[in-house]
Amino acid sequence: MNQNDVKRISRLTAIVTQLQTKRLLSATQLADRFNVSIRTIYRDVKALEQAGIPILTEEGKGYTMMEGFRMAPVSLTDNEARALITAEQLLLNNADSSLSKDYESAITKIKAILQQETKDKVELLANRIAISPAIVRHPESSSLTSIQNALTTFQVLEITYQSKQDGEITKRQVEPFALYFSLNESWLLIAFCRLRNDFRMFSLDRILKINQPNISFQPHQLTLAAYLAEKQKNFSTPDIPLS
């Protein structure tokens, strides 16, 4: 097998991975990503289809993978594996227990596909990374995973929330919009609050109770960048919850 064959196999594998992580990718985007011609991408996609990979073409838009198809990555480079292990050490000390638990489960599955030599290296690295006890925080919330689910499926959440300003406890229905990490507040939920009829920020560690009543809402047209820019007009930082 010559060098060109090796490069093509690597590219074909990477294309499958890209299509599994993105809903839709155009031939132009793939060509730019892999620094090849659009004609080469056409040939690659055809080769993958002939190999039985269920790639669907949306006319005038691009390529997508058939719903439900999954193929594990063939391998990770040493650098990719090291990056994941480093992130693991940071996330395991995260202030939300649900995120830490799910990430630990995910990283265990990823470790299972590593080659033995890479496994040995990442195990060594994991034992050589420590987080200063001065900044380690005990988990202060356990709702991040359920909030992420509601955010991505456009489901209303019912929360019981305690205000930081005066300690007032209120019950609200909110439409999750985005998540924001602040060094001062840790995780903040940005949501449209039906009680205040406006967008608000909620510190996850002040959400006393959370339920999902199976009520859908229409996705908001506002972008996260626009929301943060507008908020920063009134404050030196967009971190102020104002819930």
TrEMBL record:
Keyword Transcription regulation (UniProt): yes
Domain HTH deoR-type per the UniProt entry, residue ranges: 8-63
GO molecular function: DNA binding; DNA-binding transcription factor activity
Top-level taxon of the source organism: Bacteria
SUPFAM superfamilies, alphabetized: Winged helix' DNA-binding domain
Keywords: DNA-binding, Transcription, Transcription regulation
PANTHER family associated with the record: PROTEIN PAFC, PTHR34580
Protein name in UniProt: Putative DNA-binding transcriptional regulator YafY
